[in-house]
Amino acid sequence: MLTGRDRVKKALHFESTDRVPRDLGGMLSTAISCFAYPALVQALGLPPRPTRVYDTGQMLAFPDLDVLDALGCDVVTAFMDVTNAFDQPELWAPYGFNGRLDALVRDPAIFRVLGDGTIIQPEHGRSMPPTSHVFEAEHGGQPLVLSGDIPKPNLDEIRRQQQPLRDDEIKRVVDMCRRIRETSDRAVFFNGIGAGIGIANFTGIAMFPMLCLTEPEFVAELHETVVSHNIRQIEALLPEIAPYIDIYNCGSDDWGTQNALVAAPGVYKDLFLPYYRRVNDTVHRIDPTLATFFHSCGALYDLIDQIIDSGFDILNPVQWSAGGHSYTEWKDKARRRITLWGGGVNTQQTLPLGSPEEVDREARAVIEYMRQDGGFVFSAIHNILAEIRPENVIALYRAAD
User: Fold this and answer.
1) Residues 6 or more apart from 134 whose CB is under 8 A from it?
2) Which terminus of the chain has fewer CB atoms gathered within 10 Å of its CB, N or C?
3) How far, in Å, are 22, 85, 174, 183, 311 from residue 80 at the CA level?
4) What pLDDT score was predicted for residue 147?
5) What does the alpha-carbon distance between residue 30 and residue 99 come to, in Å, rounded to a whole number?
6) Do 122 and 111 meet the contact criterion of CB atoms below 8 Å apart?
7) Which CATH code of 3.40.630.30, 1.20.58.100, 3.20.20.210, 3.40.50.2000 fits the domain covering 4-32+71-86+145-398?
8) How far apart are CA 206 and CA 199, in angstroms?
9) Domain locations in the chain as residue ranges
């Protein structure tokens, strides 16, 4: 019988498997809301427990191993200092989110409750009203400014903040990854130092594409500064942890809207592809067996070829519901060229609004086509949100049996 790691690695090499490999929470766009998670635990017949909330912006649960077992998931996650592959009680502290959730967080001191029940994170300028399930910032933290000069990142400040990894930091990551490998037979998804660039980074998705058009030389200098530093960090860390991990997250971005690309393919080709290629080449030079991962939301169909040319092995979240191209078209363009990780169900329509039977029907149809010629890891299109009924989540993962 294949282990979870075997199953994922076969899929990444476009080989057939006993069943489609599944992921829940391998990275911060394949996860589940902490507000939906307790009901899922109960529906699975598992003991109640405080929900570990790692991402306190999107408010995502850190999936427990028994939940991964119950849903047949094949992936565990690791960040620079935390994993769900084994318990780390010293890293977590209780926090109740003003009575809304029995939870554990990394640092309760980052939160403050206002008189109306709104919880704020002053350092990040984010708030979560009592009726919300995520923390939000004004304008999504990315305002559109239509007067004056286009804002630019401060290159001098970026350079001042760039510091090499310390030996003790590297040792901590190595010790954690080694322990994961020794205690788990699932694929290990490492979320650490990536390229550090993106169309949605720095001044935000509203402004940065315009800067790419008006000052491409500045953007090139910015990307050179960021990527060169991050490659040095990768070269220091990755040789030490490569024997213990399977997937390396090299970038998270949002190049698509519901209908089209955020910027023209030529912008990606000139200002992003060469830098992503350098990062991917660095990872593959250090360990050719590692698979590099790229997350980018939206209508990306017309960018798939360039993402492949960037050297990525995996594309997520496979949002075929955006842009007018079906999952069969996505699969046909990607077939045996790049692994599609996600796309298991329409997360905006079928998963929240459909019955368990409708979720099962759509997911089975997607799986039947996507699993052809390997190159498919099953998860929803982006995170499972707070409003999703546990019956639909269970139906989603049972469809992959």
Assistant:
1) 33, 57, 58, 59, 128
2) N
3) 23, 13, 9, 18, 23
4) 82
5) 27
6) no
7) 3.20.20.210
8) 9
9) 4-32+71-86+145-398
Give the dihedral of Cα atoms 375, 306, 330, 345; nearest 10 deg: 80
Q: Residue-wise pLDDT tens for the chain (401 aa)?
A: 899 999 999 999 999 999 999 999 999 999 999 999 999 999 999 999 999 999 999 999 999 999 999 999 999 999 999 999 999 999 999 999 999 999 999 999 999 999 999 999 999 999 999 999 999 988 877 778 788 888 899 999 999 999 999 999 999 999 999 999 999 999 999 999 999 999 988 888 889 999 999 999 999 999 999 999 999 999 999 999 999 999 999 999 999 999 999 999 999 999 999 999 999 999 999 999 999 999 999 999 999 999 999 999 999 999 999 999 999 999 999 999 999 999 999 999 999 999 999 999 999 999 999 999 999 999 999 999 999 999 999 999 999 99
Q: Strands, E, within 39-92: which ranges?
A: 51-55, 60-61, 75-78
Tokens, residue 232: 């040095």
Q: Which of 254, 342, 350, 251 is nearest to 298 (CA)?
A: 254
Distance CA 365, CA 372 (A): 12
Residues 6+ apart with CB under 8 A from 66: 46
Contact 340, 322 (CB under 8 A): no
DSSP 280: H
The residue assigned the tokens 């960018």 is 303
Q: What is the Cα gyration radius of the chain?
A: 21
Distance in angstroms (rounded) separating the CA atoms of residues 366 and 368: 6
Non-local (6+) Cβ contacts of 214 within 8 A are 150
Q: Which amino acid is at 146?
A: L
Residues contacting residue 125 through CB under 8 Å, at least 6 positions apart:
137, 138, 141
| Residues sharing a CB contact under 8 Å with residue 50, sequence separation 6 or more, in sequence order | 94, 102, 103, 104
